[in-house]
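Work Package 3 (structural annotation) set out to generate three-dimensional models for the target panel prioritized at the project kickoff. During this period the team completed the workflow that converts sequence records into discrete structure tokens, so that structures can be stored uniformly alongside our sequence database. As a representative example, we reproduce one entry of 244 residues exactly as it appears in the project archive.
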Amino acid sequence: MRILTMLTGILFLGAGIYLVANEGVTFLSVAFIVGLMFVIAGVVECLSYSSYRGDNVERSWILNDGTTTFVLGVLILLNKISADAVVPMILGLWVLITGIRNFVHAWEHIEERGNAFYDHLIIGLLNLIFGLYVFFDGEIFNLASITMIGLCMIVQGVNIIHIGATIRVIKPKFIKTKEEMLEEAAARFEEAHANAKEAIKAAKAAQAELKSVEETPEEILDPTLAPKPGTETESDENPPTNGE
């Protein structure tokens, strides 16, 4: 699945470069091939869902992205998306959503500053820039529609290759080397350690909240217990002074 996903990304890259280099081509002349590629890429992304090394939230994003790609491919094959002015906008929105997903994932791991953080940050920014550019192309370079479609496929191809690079390569235990077993054990340890750190942070936050609630006067927590205006007693209004 790892190799298949990366090959799909390379195929997207190649197709995108071809479209950029041949701006005189109409979308209708390549719609069937592009739609078929989208369907294949969507299926491959959905199948890579269970092998992806990210957390459950990130896996759900991969599944959603694959489903969206598949649906777009089906609509293109059914000739429901064919207008040269509409296709770039739809694909631009598709790329923009993918960029937001990568950028949010990078932001959630900003404290770690590892390879995963920088990978998602760079790819997310790339998607965001190209996705937004599609909507403002008329005021900037005014590129041909087929060129913008090609650019969208290029940046999405980079994203698919990155997904493929993060897929686990699962081997039967009896053919694994000792080094591979040690690497897997170390990876599980790092994952468990990261989960433990998050649990400790959550426990400290809950403990601080509990202490704050315990130290807060009850009338502040429950406004119904606070004295109403005009009901203060005389002793409250004129507190005794020293010597009285």
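The chain is about 70% helix and 0% strand.
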